[in-house]
Amino acid sequence: MRTRTRLARIAAATAAVAAAAVFVAVPSSAAPQQVDHHAPAKAKPTIVLVHGAFADASSWNGEVARLEQRGYPVIAAANPLRGVASDAASIKALVDSVDGPVVLVGHSYAGDVISEAAYNDPKVQALVYIAAYLPDKGESALDLTGKFPGSTLADTLQQVALPGGGTDLYVKQNLFPKQFAADVPLSQARLMAATQRPVAMAALTEASTDPAWKQKPVWDLIPTGDKNIPPAAQEWMAKRAHAHTVVVPGASHAVLVSRPDKVTDIIVSAATATTK
To answer: pLDDT digit of tens for each residue in the chain (276 aa)?
Structure first.
């Protein structure tokens, strides 16, 4: 009798263990999904830097080094400086060749160029203007320069007639440091003067078309010591474009050379805000 009772208890225990094993082995369809907290962050946008008149792509060297240190892919474009529409087409072709989103940055006259190049281009996530023009449709760089007093650029220009017609403009080398780069070390400013690239006079008088700053988020850095584009004009354009604005007291038109830290910071602000 005792043997039968003991055998019954063993059988019951075995059955319970088997049932438990089956219960554990079969997952419930209602179990909650696991959340991957290690999912990769969004890829950083490519920063495309566009120089303005009387400069070249090397004027962005300080920003290129700093941006690359922060993990951003960077292209310092060669702006042809021949005309707003043709220059914009050149920059747009470069932007379209980039894999992924772009933050487009323009200095000085390149503000006109990026405003047109980025129009209706979904790849461009943000526009950053550095001591630059933010023209509306029908406005030219020359129009905006003269809208407020303060520019002394006209008196420093040297004209060079081109064989096929038209005129190139340079800043006279002996006047370049004071006019363009007053807060840059003199030896470096003289080098910039000797290597400057001319802008076609027609580019500065060419009217802009519909601007991308009406479509995209905008950041604008304004140097208060600018002698090319009056700071009052820059402030007026920034306000019109509802730009996130940074003012750099006393900085010259060549603020991208003299203050690459400030310029890099505003570029990163734009890139970060548009990739959240």
So the answer is: 443 444 344 344 444 333 333 333 333 334 444 444 444 557 899 999 999 999 999 999 999 999 999 999 999 999 999 999 999 999 999 999 999 999 999 999 999 999 999 999 999 999 999 999 999 999 999 999 999 999 999 999 999 999 989 999 999 999 999 999 999 999 999 999 999 999 999 999 999 999 999 999 999 999 999 999 999 999 999 999 999 999 999 999 999 999 999 999 999 999 999 887
Distance CA 55, CA 64 (A): 16
C-alpha distances (whole Å) from 125 to each of 213, 221, 229 are: 11, 18, 26
Choosing among 3.10.450.50, 3.30.530.20, 3.40.50.1820, 3.40.640.10, the CATH entry for 46-273 is 3.40.50.1820
Cα–Cα distance, 87 to 117 (Å, whole number):
8
pTM for the whole structure: 0.85
Q: Dihedrals φ, ψ of 163, to 5°?
A: -55, -35
For residue 10 the two structure tokens come to 């063993």
